[in-house]
């Protein structure tokens, strides 16, 4: 992993943390508040852009780590950015609530590196 890829992955985790705060407001608030829905879409764009930059700078990284689920974030970004008029808020919510926490957890584990015996 290049230093820039590491920085972009940390950015991805930071954006995932922001998405977690958005999700913590609840689905009812999300559905009722256009600005929360726009914020969710913006986070998907930022997340997908981080993946796109990783892909450009370290072209084999995303393919070498299919378990991270990064490609799906890039695809979601493209849908929101280019098909903003047909985006289903329920799909955005599902990505933010269900898919993204798993991706963020896997990325955190990758960034933290392998666990050392004895916790050292």
Automatic annotation (TrEMBL):
Any one GO cellular component localisation term in the record: toxin-antitoxin complex
One Gene Ontology term of the molecular function aspect: RNA nuclease activity
One family name in Pfam for this protein: HepT-like
Keyword terms: Hydrolase, Nuclease, Nucleotide-binding, Phosphoprotein, Toxin-antitoxin system
PANTHER family per record: RNASE MJ1380-RELATED, UPF0331 PROTEIN MJ0127
Name of this chain's protein: DUF86 domain-containing protein
Phylogenetic lineage: Bacteria, Bacillati, Actinomycetota, Actinomycetes, Micrococcales
């Amino acid at each position: 992993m290049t230093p820039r890829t590491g920085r972009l992955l940390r950015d991805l985790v930071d954006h995932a943390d922001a998405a977690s705060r958005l999700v913590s407001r609840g689905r009812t608030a999300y559905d009722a508040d256009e600005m929360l829905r726009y914020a969710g879409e913006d986070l998907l764009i930022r997340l997908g852009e981080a993946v796109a930059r990783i892909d450009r700078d370290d072209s084999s990284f995303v393919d070498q780590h299919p378990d991270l689920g990064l490609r799906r974030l890039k695809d979601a970004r493209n849908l929101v950015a280019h098909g903003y008029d047909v985006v289903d808020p329920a799909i955005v919510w599902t990505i933010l609530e269900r898919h993204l926490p798993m991706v963020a957890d896997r990325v955190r584990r990758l960034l933290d590196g392998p666990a050392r015996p004895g916790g050292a």
